[in-house]
Amino acid sequence: MTTDPGVSNAAESRRQQRAWYVYDWANSAFLTTTLTVLLGPYLTVLAKRDACPGRDTDLACDTSLHVLGVPVSPGSLSLYTVTFATLFSALLLPLVGALADRSGRKRSMLAYFAWTGSAAGAAMVFLSGDNWQLGVVLQLIATLAYACSIVVYDSLLIDVAGPDERDRVSSRGWAIGYVGGTLLLVVNLVLVTAHDAVGLSTEGAVRLNLLLAGLWWGLFTIVPYRRLRDRPPVDPVPTDVSSGARAAFRQLGDTLRHLRGYPQTMAFLIAYLVFNDGIQTIIYASGIYAQEQLGLSSDQLILAILIVQFVAVIGALSFGRIAARIGAYATVRGSLVVWCGVIGIGYFLPHGQFLPFAFLAALIGLTLGGTQALSRSLYSHLIPRGREAEYFSLYAACERGTSWLGTLAFGLTFQLTHSYRYAIIVLIAFFVVGGLLLNRVNVGKGITQAGNPVPAVI
Length: 458
Prior knowledge:
Elements: H1 5-51, E1 65-67, E2 70-72, H2 77-103, H3 106-122, H4 132-155, H5 157-160, H6 166-193, H7 202-220, H8 222-227, H9 241-259, H10 263-293, H11 298-326, H12 328-347, H13 354-380, H14 388-417, H15 420-425, H16 428-438, H17 443-449
Antiparallel strand pairs: 1-2
Helix pairs in contact: 1-4, 1-6, 1-7, 1-10, 1-11, 2-4, 2-9, 2-14, 3-4, 3-7, 4-14, 6-7, 6-11, 6-13, 10-13, 10-14, 10-16, 10-17, 11-12, 11-13, 12-13, 12-16
């Protein structure tokens, strides 16, 4: 009895896609629990405790910290840390992408970065008192490792999915990631709300949740590490590490020159880096905004993010279906209009009332996964074959090349006005400008220029 090679290939493709999905499950839980919900507000508490000793951390603190001689508001510390990490990663990620393409060891690189980040995340269990300095260091390491792993992970989308599958596979990956994040957030909520029952203080419960998020990320990364397959590189890297790094830098320079021959790809990158800046800032700043501006408690914040996660599963899958009908390009453009509405609603939310914030959380969840998943799959069609990780590193580097502007603008606005409401309204500009730039992109022409098959619906 013989096996149909077409059936065998299809089954192997599905196995590879399932392994790929698991990394979204692994890292999304860390992104949600640590970087979105807990670390920013908790680091703000530690910083306020150092700047204003003896004062209730629920109250405003007008005294500045001094970081390398620069005065920094405690409420802006975490945002500035993200800003620095973003700027540094903009320089680092193109090298990571070039090495990934030339080494042919994407699977191992993915695991190395993930386990480095998960170790830093788990070490956050040691944050206490007013030790915000350790928190800043660990946040930098975890954020950089996360960014590097995502470059490699995104580039694997092209290896595991064909052109007509990518919107579906990318959207399903985001959805599965949100499911994983939701499950861990349920544990977070139980630990924070029932901390007395398990013999923990509120801060002890937060630290334990930070530990669990780091462990979750590292343990589930074992699945893609063991099951994904490496593919031979188009242009292998030399075995000598220093020669490989020099070759990767040369390739990066070649890629930047190469990119000029793909004007539609470049136009999409420019549009993406602007509107995604707004998205990333909302992700990083939402916890601080809810706690400091709206006066919501940690358990209310976790419950709101649970709503985001639950609705985001529906949103990512629904956006994938919408894209199958009208195309990813039109769907992403429409989502940017919704983001402007999200910011407008956020500005007018009343202090101390959870239900209006819960409604906003549902709206964010509906839009978040779809925008990011479809942007990723749309860009994958614009990449020349054989340079996937390198071009996805440009995707991530362009994102981080200006993503620091959002967190910087948010942090500076708060430092100048002492109001997060004024800070959030500034973000509308990123979606308006990004949408205008996206309207100038001819996606069909860009796919043809990249030498890729044009999907039935784009």
